[in-house]
Backbone:
């Protein structure tokens, strides 16, 4: 067949394939116009604020933040100063910072769909919605020793990828000009980024208008540990309010643990969760934040990394109310491991240039867990997957120990493969993935709370009461 | 002041949602990612609503947002941009397992995002080279070369005599040719 004609046939086939794909029945849409309205309004507002504050939008949006504050998980009254439990590295198992008090009008944890309630980093911001992702307070916390104060300047590490922020150190509030002494926070030095009372005249195109600088407080929460707090919605929240919120933020010490919806049991070798470096970073997927999210009032670890020292495996967890995926027996690329119907697929190349692969179990009753790593480690990934148990979508069944020690795990080891063969034998099991938890233990009380916000709690048992059981879910057969 | 704007926006999106999702699924090959893409795109549309309304064709304007958002996300996806440690593995580009790719849809899915977007614009949206270039924010020459590369990959993939070593970096050729050569069903088993 002549080249031109062959090309024509190919183009026709491509067009036909596209139309076939596009004409397939669409699953229920998760697109929300209301969310777009909220997000769009917030973005416009932020832009206006940034413009008014004289901060380039990109730079401001790029503040990679960082610690975790818990609006939805009141910590109770704590009058003590910052915990001495601060360190140079944050824990992978618990948040490092938690809002202890926020004004009652702040939104409460009601949305399941929100990825990250406590912090605003990249998220949309709108104080008027109930979507916690829209909460207006942004807390950025750096590990002890990460920032350095030299004279009138505080330098902290920037997003080390350097794509969103200029390389080199940054000020916790974004810029380094015009620091003004602020009232001490818990007895430690604090500064406003700008003079909070200063009003500048700017040309807004229609003549001169007055703008104030965005109020941002930077303070030393522990010797050598710096944090900043700002409000994206109100350009000038009251100084007393900012200082009060800052003074109630709790760093280090006892924090509500992250919850893990999957647990690795009886893993051969010494595996551990890799802690974040100097500061927490959150994945942004569209308008959503990932890494940890609030699900039913618990801090779900959504994206983390485990390592045995030699190999690193990325773990991603999704809890979403949606239809099951189509990974059923017989579908190409799908297989059964440890009772789960999983899909093995190639991804793009990683930063090291190596082909990446992913093993995902997308059809486990609205809980999707995937492991990813380099293709060279596929055999290991499969073996690791064989040791994984999904704990369902009920936070009561989640665990605080993503990697169970042999003593902690009460369930028998998976029957499948710790063999040296690169992949587990394709199981012919027709058993469905393990039923998700049938635990009757109640959901955390926070989850159903409709009360707006952690007004300063005086509870004596402030931490969430979710199970810390290490084997809450039935072991897959 | 925002009320009419909001109402107009909501009306527009409601009537276009299905077609935007269709476009997004062709780009992303995954409904969850497609919905995320549409969500981001319409949020951006709201921000640029006035500009969109002033555009010659609002549909073309939105389509451009969707495609660029898709490419931006791929280019600066979190995993490429941010790591918790230096060893964090990469996260998925859109994709169907090339090892199991038997048909045109799977082969298209295995193309690099930019090539796939080019094909979608050319052969699904029926845009000219110039129009596609405008949407992609590149030159017509780039559209032509991206199209040619994509077609070459697909042609190699579906050539009965294809030699796997001739397949390009997308892996399309190797996977389909390998399958046609009767290699195992689960190519990844051998990794």
Residues:
């Amino acid at each position: 067949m002549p080249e031109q004609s062959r090309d024509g046939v190919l183009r026709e086939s491509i067009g036909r394939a596209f139309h076939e794909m596009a004409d397939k029945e669409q699953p229920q849409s998760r697109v929300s116009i209301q969310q777009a309205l909220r997000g769009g309004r917030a973005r416009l507002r932020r832009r206006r604020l940034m413009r008014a504050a004289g901060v380039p939008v990109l730079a401001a949006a790029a503040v990679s933040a960082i610690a975790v504050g818990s609006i939805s998980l009141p910590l109770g009254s704590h009058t003590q100063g910052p915990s001495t439990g601060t360190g140079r590295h944050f824990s992978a198992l618990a948040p490092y910072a938690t809002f202890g008090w926020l004004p009652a009008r702040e939104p409460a944890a009601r949305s399941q769909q929100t990825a990250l309630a406590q912090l605003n980093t990249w998220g949309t911001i709108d104080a008027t919605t109930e979507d916690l992702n829209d909460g207006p307070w942004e807390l950025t916390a750096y590990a002890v020793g990460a920032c350095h104060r030299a004279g009138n300047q505080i330098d902290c590490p920037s997003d080390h990828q350097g794509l969103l922020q200029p390389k080199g150190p940054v000020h916790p509030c974004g810029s380094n000009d015009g620091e003004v002494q602020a009232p001490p926070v818990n007895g430690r030095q604090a500064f406003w980024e700008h003079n909070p009372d200063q009003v500048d005249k700017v040309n807004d195109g229609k003549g001169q208008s007055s703008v104030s600088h965005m109020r941002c407080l930077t303070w030393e929460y522990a010797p050598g540990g710096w944090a900043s707090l700002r409000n994206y919605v109100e350009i000038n929240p009251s100084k007393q309010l900012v200082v009060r919120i800052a003074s109630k933020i709790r760093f280090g010490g006892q924090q509500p643990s992250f919850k893990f919806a999957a647990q690795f049991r009886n893993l051969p070798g010494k595996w551990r969760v890799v802690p974040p470096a100097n500061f927490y970073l959150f994945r942004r997927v569209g308008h959503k934040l990932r890494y940890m999210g609030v699900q039913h009032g618990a801090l779900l670890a959504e994206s983390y990394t485990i390592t045995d020292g030699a190999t690193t495996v990325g773990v991603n967890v999704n809890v979403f109310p949606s239809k099951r995926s189509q990974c059923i027996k017989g579908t190409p690329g799908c297989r059964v491991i440890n009772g789960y119907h999983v899909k093995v697929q190639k991804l793009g190349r990683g930063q090291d240039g190596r082909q990446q692969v992913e093993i995902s179990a997308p059809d486990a009753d609205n809980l999707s867990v995937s492991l990813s790593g380099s293709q060279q480690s596929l055999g290991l990934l499969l073996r690791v997957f064989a040791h994984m148990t999904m704990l369902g979508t009920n936070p009561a069944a989640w665990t605080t120990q993503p990697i169970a020690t042999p003593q902690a795990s009460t369930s028998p080891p998976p029957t499948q493969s710790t063999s040296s063969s690169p992949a587990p034998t394709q199981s012919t099991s027709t058993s469905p993935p393990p039923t998700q938890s049938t635990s009757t233990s109640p959901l955390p009380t926070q989850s159903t709370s409709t009360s707006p916000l952690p007004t300063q709690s005086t509870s004596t048992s402030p931490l969430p009461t979710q199970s810390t059981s290490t084997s809450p879910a039935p072991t897959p057969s | 002041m925002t009320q009419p704007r909001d109402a107009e926006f909501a009306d527009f999106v409601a009537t276009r949602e299905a077609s935007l999702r269709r476009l997004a699924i062709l780009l992303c090959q995954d409904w969850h990612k497609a919905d995320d893409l549409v969500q981001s795109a319409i949020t951006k549309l709201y921000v640029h609503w006035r500009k969109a309304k002033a555009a010659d064709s609002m549909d073309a304007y939105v389509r451009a947002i969707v495609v660029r958002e898709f490419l931006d996300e791929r280019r600066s996806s979190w995993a490429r941009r941010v790591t918790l440690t230096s060893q964090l593995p990469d996260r998925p580009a859109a994709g169907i397992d090339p090892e199991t790719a038997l048909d045109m849809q799977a082969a298209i899915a295995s193309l690099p995002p930019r090539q796939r977007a080019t094909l979608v614009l050319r052969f699904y949206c029926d845009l000219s080279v110039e129009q596609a270039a405008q949407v992609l924010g590149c030159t017509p020459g780039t559209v032509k070369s991206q199209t040619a590369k994509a077609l070459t990959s697909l042609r190699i993939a579906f050539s009965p005599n294809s030699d796997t070593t001739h397949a390009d970096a997308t892996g399309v050729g190797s996977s389909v040719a390998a399958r046609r050569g009767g290699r195992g069903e689960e190519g990844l088993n051998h990794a």
